[in-house]
Structures are given as C-alpha cells and as structure tokens.
Amino acid sequence: MAAGPAVDALALQYQGRAVFIEQNVDAPIGNRISRFWAAFNDGTAYLPLVILDSGHRIETGDLGNFTTVFQSLVEAELTRPPQAEIEAYARQVGTRMRVYVRLHNTSGTTLSASTNQAALHALVYEDAHVGVTGRIMRAAPWLDLTSPLAQDGVTSATLDTDVLSGVAWNALHTVVVVDYVPGAGLAFDMLQAAVAQPAGLTVEPSTLRVGVDSGHLADRTVPITLAGPYTLSWTAVPDVPWLVLTPDEAAIATRPAVTVAAGGLARGPQEGHVTFSATSQDGMAFTQFLTVTAVLGPRQLRAVAGPVTPGSPIALPIVMSALGDEHEVSFSLTFDPVMLRAPSVAPGSAASAATLAVDDSEASAGRLGITLTLPAAQTFPEGDDQLAVVTFATATTVPRPNTVVTFSDQPMARSITDGFGSPLTAAVEGTTLVFPDASVLRVVRRHLQHSGR
Amino acid sequence: MATVRRSGAWLLAALALVATAAIAVAQESSPAGPAPRLVVFEDFTRFT
C-alpha cells in the first residue's frame, strides 16, 4: 500500500488516540518541519518525511510496507506517558481560528524557550484530500514559552491563525501540541497533545439530586465543575432561595459549590435551577443551566424480620429508605452466632447494578460486613430500596426465644456516600427474630429440698 | 525517489507566520484528570 492510503487507514484505526496531518513539503506551514530536520540532522532526505510527536520518532523515504512501519511507530509512541496536561478550545473569529490553551507542566522539567526551546503549537487541519491523504494542514501558529514554566506550573495562552481562505470551516480540526528539546541533542519531543473542543461552557453535572435527611437536618454542599476557554468568567444565579452558590461569580478555573439550605426546604422533592452565564473580553457569551432536585425526608437503613423456622434458612432483607442521592452503602450486622450461622449475602432487588462486597471473616463471631457500590454517577432510587438479602442458617434448638440483628461498625464501618464521595446521614434500625417456643431449649430445674441429710 | 534538501526557507516562512498570541499565567488547578498521550503523526509530501 502506498503511503497515503496507509496513513488514511491508520487515521481511522487510531481515531481518538492519534491524529495524522499532511503538509506540502515545498510550502510548509508553521515551523513543524523544523522538528523533522532537528531530528534528522542531515542535509538531504527522501520523501515522504514523517515525524511522530515532534520528532521523537522519524522516518523518510520509500519504506515498502508503510502500514507496518507507521503502525509500529504509533504503537511505540502510545506506550509513552504524557508529560503535560492540555485543555484546549477553538472557535472561528472572522476568517481566523482562535485557539485557547491551558497548559499544565508535569514533565519534571522547567519548560523554557531559551533553555529547551519549549513551545505551544496549534495545528489546524482540514478533512480534505489535497495531497496524498484525507487531511491537510491549514495553519500552525505557535508560541514560544518565553516565560519559564516550572514543574507543576500552569500557563494559559491564546493563538490565532492567519486568515484562512478557501477552507470548509466545518471540516476543520485543531490539535494543540507542546514540545521541547529534552536533552543535549537537537531533536524535539512532544510532551502531550490535545484536540481542541469547540469553545463553549459546560456544567458538570447538569442535573443534581440532593437528599436532606430530616433526622439529621443539615445543609448539603456539592461541588460543580465548570469548563470552557480559560478567558471566560462566569456568574451564577439561582431561582429559589434554598440554593446558594459559593462563589457566585469567578474565573472559569474556579469551581463553585452549590449548597442546599436545609432550613428552606419543604418536605418531599422540590426543584430549583441555577443559570450560569459566562463571558470573555473577546466576545464569547455562553449560558448553561443546572437543575437541582432536593428531597427532604428520613433516610433509614433497616433489617426486616420474617418468621423463623428453626433448622431452616431465614432470609433477612436489608432495606434503605432512600432520598435518591445514595451511591455507596456500607454497614455491618451483628448477630448471635449460636442462633444464626453461616450468613450468605445476595444483592437486593434495588441493587442489581451494584457491586457487592462481603466481609465474612468474623462471621463465626457474629459479625458480617457488607458494601454495595453502584457504577459511577448512579444512585439508588428514592423510596424503599431492597439493598441486600442476608440468609442465615438457624439453629434447631436455641437457648432463648428472641435474638437481635443490629447494625454495627465491625468489620465494615457504617457509611453512606453520595456520588461525590460526601458522607450522608441515616438512622439505622435492627430487628428481632422470634423463634417458636418449641425450639427453645428448656433447662429442667431441679428443686432440691434440704433434707438435713 | 524524490528528495528534499534542508534550507533556511522553512525558518523564514515560519517566522512570517508567527501568530498573534497572548499569554497569561493562571494558578488554579485543572478540573480535568490526566488524559493518555495523544500521538501526533505528521507527514510531508510533494503535491506535484
């Protein structure tokens, strides 16, 4: 296969993991071709010239089986950990592309144009068959990191392309690259790259459910993530008095927290909204909404007793009166190991999607730990949720008619958390199992009479 | 097979294309977690 079709096939194969961009060697755009010559370190090369990750790997000339060679290059690069984090957005401004970049240096090295030629590049390419592949570079503005960026430092930058004419704007993509010369040699290396997202404002989550336990009345606070071009500033306006944003205006990188004021809630569910408005000095304006459903009511975890048939297993459902924001539930049960033995645990009807973890290492001492964890971002539904069913073997004869199963913290501490890992309060209620009289071992008491003998 | 020779032309062309750029320093932490490496494959070919 020729180089062009091979590259096109690989672009499809590695979508999301690698980007493939072609340029005309006789009219190079930006200074990307300098990365080839820096790594090649010679005067004459055979076409095509190929660079991966700013020249960390290069190839030239007719390679025969292009697919195999290029694939091995990409695979080798994919194994390398990134050494920077990039958050990038792009938008059309007139006939130019404007690119907003936020760079976090995690390389362990200070990045500096003067000491290691560190630079940011915005590679703007179009899905168009101009050369031999289906993608062609249209612009590649770059910015030397003239201010040293220390390890763990963060910098932000805006890059504008020159005027772009004759392009299909809806077929343009932008990839931001940060590279530098890592050692004493000439070759560059790429620390990381990122696809620029369309400039906009995102609010995560966009819907939120917050339970307020009426048995432990307290305000609840949940973090909100805002994302968008680094130049944005935002304001937040709630439409109900029981929603409070802290802060209620800030730069985009500042995460607000939304607090549900418990004292302002009516019993049951109620809905409020927050309007986030974000603007920038260069003319961006976006609006997004957060919907908050707050539920005021009792949250309770309880064991439900059923009739006992001595010598037969007894199933003990564990039920949570949920407010709808519970994500993970942990607890322990304490029981009398003389009367109840060999506990086994099955997920309850409301926990079919949950991961069940059981610690029965102390079962012989009458203690059993259980944790139920839902997949990320999932919560148990509001109402009575059967979390688990614990089945015990029962003794045929027992020393007393009643035995209690209580909630405890050993071996698993009691804990209910929401999807953000915040602890939630709940009342707990154990249960009493009643054995039939016939199973109770009666000790015959002999009344000795003092005979004087 | 076609060859290409290194010259100073690429540097001059590149310098002419330096973008209008603004830079600012921010101190806030990133809201996003680290992403895996995105590989960038660039190839230079002759169009004629």
Structure in words:
The complex is a heterodimer of chains A (453) and B (48). Chain A is built from 4 helices and 35 strands. Chain A is mainly beta. Chain A folds into 3 domains: 3-198, Immunoglobulin-like (Sandwich); 202-297, Immunoglobulin-like; 300-439, Immunoglobulin-like. In chain A, helix 1 runs parallel beside helix 3 (66-78). The N and C termini of chain A lie far apart (115 Å). The model of chain A has no long low-confidence stretch (mean pLDDT 95). Helix content of chain B is 17%, strand content 31%. Chain B contains 1 helix and 3 strands. The longest helix of chain B has 8 residues, at 9-16. Classes of the chains: A mainly beta (453), B alpha+beta (48). At the A-B interface, helix 1, strand 1, helix 2, strand 2 and strand 3 of A face strand 1, helix 1, strand 2 and strand 3 of B.
Beta-strand level of the residues of chain A, as a percent range? over 45%
The value of Rg of chain A in angstroms is 33 Å
Q: Kindly name the structural category of chain B.
A: alpha+beta
- Give the uncertain stretches of chain B in residue-range form: 9-32
The percent of residues in helical segments of chain B reads 10-25%
What's the architecture of the largest domain in chain A, going by CATH? Sandwich
- Tally of DSSP β-strands of chain A: 35
* Class of secondary structure makeup of chain A: mainly beta
Can you write the helix and strand succession of chain B as a string? EHEE
Strand content of chain B: 25-35%
Examine the coordinates and then state which fold CATH places here, giving the name of the CATH topology of the largest domain in chain A.
Immunoglobulin-like
- Can you give the mean pLDDT of chain A? 95
- What separation lies between the terminal Cα atoms of chain A? 115 Å
> Helical stretch count of chain A?
4
Biggest interface between protein chains, with counts per chain? A-B, 93 and 41 residues
- Please tell me how large the radius of gyration of chain B is: 18 Å
**Number of E-type strands of chain B:** 3
CATH class of the largest domain in chain A, named Mainly Beta
Number of helices of chain B: 1
Please tell me what the overall shape of chain A is: elongated
